[in-house]
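Support request, please re-run this one:
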Amino acid sequence: MLAALGAGLLFPAIAQAETSKPATAVTAKVNQAVLNELPFADTRSFEDARRGFVGALPNGRVVDEEGHVAWDMEPYAFLNGDSAPDSVNPSLWRMAQLNAIHGLFEVVDGMYQVRNMDLSNMTIIEGDSGLIVIDPLLTPATARAGLELYYQHRSKKPVVAVLYTHNHADHFGGVKGVVNEEDVRAGKVRIYAPEGFMEHAIAENVIAGNAMTRRATYQFGAGLPPGVRGHVDTGLGKALGSGGLSLIAPTDTVPDNANLTIDGIDIEFQMAHGTEAESEMMMYFPQFRVLNTAEITSQHLHNIYTIRGAAIRDANSWSKFIDKVLVRFADRAEILVAQHHWPIWNPEDITHFLEVQRDLYKHIHDQTVRMMNRGMLPGDIAENLQLPESLNQEWSARGYYGTVSHNARGVYQRYMGWYDANPANLNPLPPREESRRTIDYMGGEAEVLRKARTDFADGDYRWVASVMRHLVYANPENREARELGADALEQLGYQAEAGTWRSAYLVGAHELRHGVITPKHVGLQPDLMQALETSMFFDAMG
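Re-run finished. Output below.
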């Protein structure tokens, strides 16, 4: 998923625990109600996530060659508790516990996965002469540690091939942790990728890279300390690995529907361009009877619109590509793996899982379009669109990363753009001027604060956050407004089922209280810079 970290970044740790506030009685009640709404008695996902466990690094800790911590699971030990605290949505708590199960896992004899040692999974396949690595994580440090963990338990064969499933950085950025460029140039290692990989891997990181990186601070909760009032999970995985990216250009482009044999391993490919990523491929391994769906399927609702910012994805095509692999491979596959989360372990469950994922994206697309064509606006659609009970009770359809709400807005925007056809919104005042006048119309700062405190006490946090946005825009120095706005965002974060929403709310609360989180920007990564075409370089200059 990740495409916004082409620049090396270091985020200061937030001393958030010292200033965060406990969940209110209203939030505790909201979260308690979740326990009665979802099938928490179904714990099969925990069995599936632990199945095939081989071994793990002590404390899940990875230190890079310069002594910096690139990955650490020990701060998430608080997730060992059985019950979610009042400050975490119980559904998100469940997902956070699943994404805390880390280490090396056997899928079948000859195929292994490194899970939760970075945001994504790294799949390792034993070929005739060496190893095939699928998606070498986000950073070289975590990829190297994952391969070393594999070597602790299996034979130390060289890596002879790398497959990039798609153009997001968490699926290629660690490549130099598993192979070196000299071996690729010498022909000792082949690197395979779908058509358009390099173009999209570079373009999205460069053209809008700075803006996306800033927004990714909110989406992933960069800098938030792990804890029951802080970071618990991203939904897609535990967190982002820390460190710079690497990139080695593919030696081979995989055409659609290709059947290739790589180091004795037969692979049938299925492209899915323009869905979760602009360039993406899935694959089936007939020798293992394993289907790898890359990031086209996952154990939750993914993003049609991603809040870090990106081109809107085509939910209708996404659904159709899932149907294609369902028809083409489901009757042959005995295990389904993906490049995030844990496997599906039997054929009946594979078919059901693919049907749920297909219907999930199709439902959001079709119902948004239906409401749109009835004249409803994005906010109305987001508020009213619900999943049918057949999907709502499926854990793999829950909104831990994408949400029905912001995905519905994304579908609307894909077809209709930002303008809602209300002429009053065609050329509105700039935000600060509009907010200043709005606060004046509402009776001034003191009166707005008085009313907002009453609404906060009643648990109307969405409204309080919205009104305080206007007040802070009108007067950024109003400390009471900033504190009340932060309090409202914090409670919304505690209630959020999506890891992305929780992170965004809690980072927003921190910045209202303490100022903007300013990452140390160490520039575009050298490998990405070298891959820039001349036209892209000048495009990036603005």
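The CA atoms of residues 273 and 279 lie 5 Å apart. The two ends are 25 Å apart (CA to CA).
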